[in-house]
Amino acid sequence: MNQLIALFQDKRFYATLFGNVYEFYDFIVYAFLSSYIAQLFFPQTATLPALLSTFGVFASGYLTRPLGALFFGYIGDKKGRKPALVLSIVIITLSTVMIGLLPTYDSVGMCAPLLLTCCRLLQGFAVSGEEAGAAVYLSEVFGPEKKGFVGAAILGSAYFGVLVGSLVVGALLFFFTEIEIKAFAWRLPFLFSLILGIIALKFRLSLVSSKESCTQVNPVCALWKHHRRDVTALTLMTASLCITIYLATVFLPTFLTLVHGFSLQQSMLLTSLELLLVSIGVPIFGMLSDRFGCHRIFLAGCCGLVLLAKPIFMLLTAAHLFPVFIGIFALGMVVFFVAGPLFALLIGSFQKDVRFTGVSFVFNLSMSVFGGTTPLVSLSLMQYFQDDTAPWMLMALSGMLGIVGFFSASLGARADLKIFGKREQHHDAF
Fold it and tell me: For 10-209+216-416, which CATH class?
């Protein structure tokens, strides 16, 4: 307990977390305003096709994430963790403010969605250097004994950033009319990021530089030469989180609106409750993974995804509100299990000289292939099968991918791993 108190009092801990909260606020506001963006940037199409187009642009923000991961990973491993974390803040701030200044379709026609896509690509490039890099930085600062907790705290702070985004959009819906939002107010959450960005940058500049983390080798080449098997396996393993968390957060407001006819305000409120639950629960399960073993908790979560996917979506589509609440809570619980230990597993799979690059690339490649496409694929499944519960198939698939990836990866000193016996040991070289 004393160690945890000391951790919370350390400036490096909350400075890193604030930057992560900010970046994911920036990145996710787009999704929460998707219904308005669809009308302003894709006004010539019907509701569902317009939403598909809007989520298509949302997914485009993930196309540049693997490239950004290699870019920031190279900087993080060659120049130090701090320069990479500072640069990501600068780029995400500029790209988000640019979205708030964009002309709409009525002003410039097809140039509007093209400019919107360019900004999303830049956002995706910037955010790729944040979440995994921050987890690597804090894990090295506080040591392997706390890597489960600090990695989960990074994920929890990201979800808290999403929660902040949902609350800001909720306030927007409360204080402004539909006409005012379409006219100008939709821009405010994006422009607000300028203030938060300046604060986040000040925090990041105060971090202690990590010159001791620099490597003399080319981390990108070393990753390709020595870790190709693990990159593939860990990408599949990470898919368990990527798909599930985007079902639970990004897709949930649209899902509840389409299925139950909830207003956007009601859907945002329920999503905010889910995000609050996840923000608190994930760090707790990260702490438990330090105590009881990352592997056992992660595998339990993957099995839960496979077994509970159909029942959860049956609850989410129930006619009454109480089962919907239960479904939201159950969805949050399975997120706890896979998210809590994930970064500890990823960080423990790479040695220091390629750690930033390896963890960033694996995490962002999985987010690009699986996470960013989840809303689009979920809507397509619902449309193809004419079944509101159809996204359960994607959720069950995520658990299967997690299990396959886990047993395909080396995961550090594999010979020392006893999932149901003694706690795992890694070649972390912290």
Answer: mainly alpha
